[in-house]
Amino acid sequence: MSDTPKFTVIDRRKFKADEEQANRETAASEAAAGNAVEPAAKTEPVETGGGPRLVVNESRHEAGAKPVEVAEAAAETELPPAPTAAETQEQKTAYDASAQRLEDIVRAQNPGMGEQPPVGFEHLVQQFYVSAMIQMGAGAQEGQRPRVDILGARNTIDLLGVLAEKTKGNLTDAEDGMLQSVLFEARMAFMELTRMITLQGMQPPAGPPPGKR
To answer: pLDDT of 134-187, one tens digit each?
Structure first.
């Protein structure tokens, strides 16, 4: 935790309050003199175009947000200290016991269901792949307008790239081959989709090209 960069956060609330108070006093003076200034009319954004809709995760791309402001906001949230090895092991044991109790309840209500296989590396890779394809419009019901989150898809594919980079040299041949194949297919689908969006004037197709998985 000592490597976390330190930021100096300036409390702008006092300056903002003083500025708002000065604005109110100025407006009151002008109104008394008969020269009140009317505020500019608020303009609303106009939506254009039809067909499939491109969506943007507004929580990540706030209008007008600046990198410095984002860094200052993040600095206000301090991360808790990392748990000790003993705390981690104790929590893992309790988690496994809780998960086992839940599985026993589910299997008791569904006698025909076999024991669930443990979650492995391939499940993580597949989860990223499926998420990226859904964000690129795959899985839309027939007759419905697909909802394409192209920026979200790019972030998910980039996460796959980070996973491949950080696990390099620590995977079996089968795991590495699966990861590289999934990453290749996801990137190809992304490039094909962005090419179609560009050629068709921001009108995405029904979905990405079907993959092999």
So the answer is: 999 988 777 777 788 999 999 999 999 999 999 999 999 999 999 999 999 999
Please give the Cα distance from 152 to 138 (Å, whole number): 14
Q: Is the dihedral of CA 140, 146, 150, 152 positive or negative?
A: negative
Type of residue at 34: G
φ/ψ region of 137 (left if φ > 0, alpha if ψ in -120 to 50, else beta) reads left
What's the angle, vertex CA 171, arms to CA 169 and CA 174, rounded to 5? Answer: 130
Do 193 and 150 touch, CB atoms closer than 8 A? Answer: yes
In this structure, the strands spanning 53-54 and 147-148 are: parallel
CA angle 87-88-92, nearest 5°?
115
Q: What CA–CA distances, in Å, run from 67 to 4, 62, 70, 79, 111?
A: 17, 11, 5, 20, 54
Partnered with residue 98 across adjacent β-strands are: none
